[in-house]
Write a structure and sequence with these properties.
Double Stranded RNA Binding Domain, five-stranded mixed beta sheet, alpha/beta
């Protein structure tokens, strides 16, 4: 399966004419490039037109769309549902509903689309509606008020001792709260828009092929640099919040005639899902004096890892956004000199 980042192949070449190469004490330095932000397919901001659902009765369909538009406006995104025209984004609900004794059970997939119909991403919610919500008539009043529970009432009810019921439970506003967080996050990229989003974790696995201590040195340097940027590195607990960063290293003698014997160094960095699906790739190529990396890599491992991490940070950020996770905790970021 080809992922949304499969097409991203960043190749970093620092090798000039081999005949001119001498001792390169700091190979891979400055090799980093930013990832391509266009891969997100999202602009910074814009209006959202929330569509009604063809899968619901007219009253329920209108109330659901209005609730989502209200929720997005509370998250500082201009949204509306009372017109079929315009919109920088279109938000369409696909709904499966069934009647239950207390009202209705809904399974909703919200599809965020561009005006040309290209789907960007989805947010899903499941929940129940009370009977008075489900059987409400077609709304006629302003979008701001129809079936909306005043915030002061929500706060008051929650403050009452012994009152465990959430006033938003089994309402349209309660049903759209979580997907509205996710959609706001997709559109703005604002970490505060998605409440308590967990952090993505990077597992450094399968560093292979290097002579000497290269595999260990590269993994250790990459891990330290990622953590310095506030990105979580965890090789032990690997789960749904994890991605894997691996590296395949090759060091081989340069066959062309040069002023001094050289080794060509190739490092292929790959980011993948835990199931092996490739998400991003970057290649580094350079030359070093013959035998320089046979035993200890030293500063070369740090320089190669820094160039890679500087480039891959942008890709990891895009992956985190796609997975609806936060990439890093800025409070844990430290400067690297």
């Amino acid at each position: 399966m080809t992922s949304f980042l499969r097409s991203l192949v960043l190749t970093v070449f620092l090798v000039g004419p081999l005949a001119a190469c001498g001792d390169l004490p700091r190979p891979f330095e400055g090799a980093g490039r930013e990832g391509d932000p266009a891969l997100l397919e999202l602009r910074d901001t814009g209006t959202v037109r929330v569509e009604a659902s063809d899968d619901l009765p007219e009253g329920a369909s209108a109330h659901l769309a209005r609730a989502m538009a209200r929720a997005l406006r509370k998250r500082d995104i201009p949204a509306y549902s009372d017109s079929m025209e315009g919109g920088d984004y279109i938000l369409r609900p696909n709904v499966t509903a069934s009647l239950i004794e207390q009202g209705a059970a809904l399974d909703i997939t919200w599809v965020l689309m561009r005006p040309d119909g290209l789907a960007i991403d989805t947010a899903r919610a499941k929940g129940e509606l009370a009977a008075d919500q489900w059987f409400a008539d077609q709304p006629t009043g302003p979008e701001e008020t129809n079936l909306a529970i005043p915030e002061e009432l929500v706060d008051k009810v929650r403050e009452l001792e012994g009152k465990a019921d959430d006033p938003l439970a089994k309402t349209y506003d309660g049903l759209v709260a979580t997907p509205a967080d996710q959609i706001a996050f997709l559109i703005t990229g604002d970490r505060s828009a998605i409440q308590a989003a967990p952090y993505m974790k990077v597992a450094l696995l399968d560093f292979a092929g290097a002579p000497g201590d290269g595999n260990t040195a590269l993994a250790r340097s990459a891990g330290a640099l990622l953590q310095a940027k506030g990105i979580t590195v965890d090789n032990k607990e690997i789960g749904d919040q994890s991605v894997i960063l691996s590296a395949t290293i090759d060091v081989s003698p340069v066959k062309e005639q040069t002023t001094q014997p050289l080794d060509g160094v190739s490092i292929e960095w790959i980011i993948m899902e835990v199931d092996g699906t490739e998400l991003g790739q970057m290649n580094q190529n350079n030359v070093v004096p013959r035998g320089r990396l046979d035993e200890r890599w030293g500063s070369i491992a740090s320089l190669a890892a820094q160039a890679a991490v500087d480039t891959l940070e942008g890709v990891l950020g895009q992956i985190a956004t796609k997975k609806k996770l936060q990439l890093k905790d800025d409070k844990k970021t430290v400067s690297i000199r």
